Amino acid sequence: MFKNAKAFTGYSVNDLQKAKDFYGNILQLDVSEIAEMPTLRLHLAGGGDVLIYEKPNHQPATFTVLNFPVEDLEGTVAKLKELGVPFEDYDFPGLKTDADHIARGPVGPHIAWFTDPAGNILSVLKEM
Length: 128
Description:
The chain is α/β, with parallel strands linked by helices. It contains two helices and nine strands; from the N terminus they run βαββββαββββ. The longest helix is centred in the first third of the chain and has 11 residues, at 16-26. The termini are far apart. The relative contact order is 0.20.
């Protein structure tokens, strides 16, 4: 039924202008605005899109909404920190971030989680 549908995902923020600045200027993604409604479209490598819309009663996602595979995880984390991006710390059984905010567990990729200005959780992870 949806085999050829060009599916996309979306999530809310509480301030569209802050989101536009963060995704466009800090993360350096290709961002366009949809004039008919207060919505941003993130154009991702590989052809995927993400819609970001402003919602007055926005609640940040409690799970990772977007993952960015990178070759140099440590360098990317350091650069994002220089730009003022806040990283998450986790200390759960089987999942612990180190002093660099990177989880280097025995299972899964090395990964670091950070938040956008609206508190939504994103990640950078070592390309596999």
